[in-house]
């Protein structure tokens, strides 16, 4: 089955809708090959989703209005607990935000005059869930596709 990166957000909806608990990577086929997505979905004893994070493994800021930014989807996190930093493979920070509604556009600190090259970048995301008050740390790589 061939999925686009945009359609993969439907996978998160399925996890939330059916109250599945998981913490794993999902492989999604795209025109660039197999891309992994990280999911962390936790439910309570009644099957209700109490916390969810969905982190894409790639994005393509190429002005086609599909997957223009790298922005993890988060559900049920505490206000002011979120942070995301992106670094190149040499360790230089190229983006930072503490707003879960903001995403990275593939440019140095989102400055459209400083376009970064196609390659993998490190991400580090932290947040605190609302129900268990636990701090979650996610580290991995995201592929910037031009």
Model description:
The protein has 146 residues and is mainly β. It has one domain (9-144). Helices cover 7% and strands 42% of the residues. It contains one helix and nine strands, in the order H-E-E-E-E-E-E-E-E-E. Strand 6 and strand 7 (93-97) form a beta hairpin.
List keywords for this structure.
146 residues; mainly beta; five-stranded mixed beta sheet; four-stranded antiparallel beta sheet; 7% helix; elongated
* N-C termini distance: 24 Å
Portion in strands: 35-45%
Q: Secondary-structure element order, as H and E?
A: HEEEEEEEEE
The spatial strand order of the largest sheet comes to 4-9-8-6-7
The rough form would be described as elongated
Radius of gyration from the CA trace? Answer: 15 Å
- How many domain units? 1
Secondary-structure-based class equals mainly beta
Please report the total strand number as a whole number: 9
Query: How many helix segments?
Result: 1
Largest sheet: 5 strands, mixed
Low-confidence stretches: 1-22, 24-32
- Give average pLDDT, whole number: 80
Estimate percent helicity: under 10%
Quick description:
This protein has 146 residues and is mainly beta.
Helix and strand arrangement:
Blueprint: H1 9-18, E1 22-30, E2 33-43, E3 49-55, E4 58-59, E5 73-75, E6 83-87, E7 93-97, E8 119-128, E9 135-144
Parallel strand pairs: 4-9
Antiparallel strand pairs: 1-2, 2-3, 3-5, 6-7, 6-8, 8-9
């Amino acid at each position: 089955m061939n999925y686009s990166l945009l359609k993969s957000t439907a996978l998160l909806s399925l996890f939330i809708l059916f109250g599945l608990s998981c913490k794993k990577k999902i492989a999604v086929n795209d025109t660039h090959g197999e891309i992994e997505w990280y999911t962390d979905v936790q439910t309570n004893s009644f099957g209700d989703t109490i916390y969810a994070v969905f982190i894409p493994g790639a994005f393509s800021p190429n002005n086609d209005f599909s997957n223009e930014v790298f922005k993890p989807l988060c559900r049920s996190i505490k206000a002011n607990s979120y942070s995301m930093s992106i670094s190149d493979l040499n360790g230089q920070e190229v983006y930072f935000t503490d707003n879960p509604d903001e995403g990275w556009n593939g440019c140095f600190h989102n400055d459209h005059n400083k376009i970064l090259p196609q390659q993998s970048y490190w991400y580090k995301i932290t947040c605190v869930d609302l129900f268990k008050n636990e701090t979650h740390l996610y580290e991995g790589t995201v592929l910037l596709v031009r």
